[in-house]
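WP5 quarterly update. Target: Aminotransferase class I/II-fold pyridoxal phosphate-dependent enzyme. Source organism: Chryseomicrobium palamuruense. Length: 370 aa.
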Amino acid sequence: MTYQLETKLAQAGNRKDPATGAVSLPIHLSTAYIHPGIGQSTGYDYSRTANPTRTALEEALATLEKGDQGFAFSSGMAAVHAVLQLFRTGDELIVSEDLYGGSYRLFHQLQDRTGLVFCYVDTTDVEKVKAVISEKTVAVFLESPTNPLMKETDIKAISDIAKAHDLYVIVDNTFYTPVLQQPLTLGADIVLHSATKYLGGHNDVLAGAVITKGAELGEQFTVIQNSIGAVPSPLDCWLLVRSLKTLGLRIERQQQNARELAAFLTAHPAIDSVLYPGKGGMLSFRLNDASWVPVFLERLKLIAFAESLGGVESFITYPTTQTHADIPEEERERVGICGRLLRFSVGIEHVSDLQQELQQILDELAGGTR
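Structure tokens (predicted):
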């Protein structure tokens, strides 16, 4: 029988302990496992290589993203770094020009130290992607929507182009999650997540995830994950499985709130522009005056001025000094990450309370004209 996504989420990690019938996934803390004899194994040898609690999480991730294998990592950046182990000196990757500052920082470091080449392009423009493909290009690395400008890329169109040139397509699906988007069904080869964000959803676990399509990539990542060893603890894996069960419900409420708040912000005279793709719980907006930013952030009481996203609590982030501080100012300004831009991770609070706080602060900034 084929089940809907919400059912798969609710059942994540269930029936993994048939001996006791435990509904809640057991937390296997053991780092070592007894071998019945030489050349004999239960499937578990050492916890870095495999752990039963982590296996349950990885199976759930693969199922939800409709991939063949899932791999859990100790952070989102560990997952990104693991993906880059596929490539070698001189290889070129086409990358979304507007992307998370931590990814940009890692790419910049690797370009200097390893000789990997990263070509930044507006991947929402298919023709621009085509124009920069060279004989050294090996992959396209996408965020869709991008962080923080919320630009959506046509993943299928990019995947079609990539297949014609024998390129990998890698999609960071952190913002949309498999509830709203499943890139592997659109032609991507690899999906990754900062699982700290929506998959975890409660700002209490640090983790990353990679999901692959095809046996060859699965074999490669099995070696990469085991060799690097940047895996989450059994408790972190259990927390993620627990959180996946409510992912659909959380996304539904966060999206509903984000839509209403995007409409409210768009109509307010203190707001220059709102960047919201129409779905999901993430949006960005620009104030009319950069000098208003410190005042706005200092007056937040319900909404947290914090750097993460995707949790049940609402966060507002200032990319200029937080998530994108390592990107040179000239480059930030060029792509539109200006000093007036704020990123808003909308939580599950009652939307009227969130709107009331925003309206009070924005009315004051606009001089009480509303």
